[in-house]
Amino acid sequence: MKMKKSASFLLLGMFLLLAGCGNKMKDGYYTAEMAEFSHGWKEYVCIQVKDDTIVSAEFNAKDASGFIKAWDNEYMRNMGTVCDNYPNQYTREYVRQLLEGQKDTKVDLMAGATHSGDNFIKLIPAVIEQARKGDSATAQVTDTTNIK
After folding, report:
1. pTM of the model
2. What CA–CA distance (Å, rounded) separates 47 from 98?
3. Of 113, 111, 121, whose CA–CA distance to 145 is shortest?
């Protein structure tokens, strides 16, 4: 009888251990992007996970041809003079916050980049879910803020 109890506790312990592993992120590269373009850009976030830790990340936007927003010098000059912020600045800041906060990221939105920050906030749970599942397909995130 004692052996049955020990085996039962051992099996229960293994089950609980494995159940707890479901929340861990799997090593690899994962991407989530907005399902639609907004103002000509589609924002995305890519992360690299190693040992349940986000070790690198990229947040940016691309146009229909695949051109990256942070590479657009004219856009940067115009935005920089209007609101003292630009894509190279705010994308790096949002990524910094992600790397520091990991799965529990609380994002401080930056002036002039609140729409992008809102999208970043929507993309993070989706990309982390992909990492938990080990699914390297790009997750599509719908912007529900404009639905009435």
Report:
1. 0.75
2. 10
3. 121
Q: Which of 93, 57, 86, 90 is nearest to 72 (CA)?
A: 86
Task: List strand residue ranges (DSSP E) for the chain, in order.
Answer: 28-34, 42-50, 53-62, 139-141
Contact status, residue 122 vs residue 142, Cβ threshold 8 Å: no
What 70-75 contacts at long range (C-beta under 8 Å, 24+ apart), as own/partner pairs, is: none
Q: What three-state secondary structure class fits 45?
A: strand
**Contact indicator for 47, 56 with CB cutoff of 8 Å:** yes
Query: How far is residue 133's CA from residue 27's CA, in Å, rounded to a whole number?
Result: 10
The rounded distance, in Å, linking the Cα atoms of 49 and 61 is 21
pLDDT digits (tens, 9 = 90+) for 31-67: 999 999 988 999 999 999 999 999 999 999 999 999 8
Q: 2 pLDDT exceeds 70?
A: no
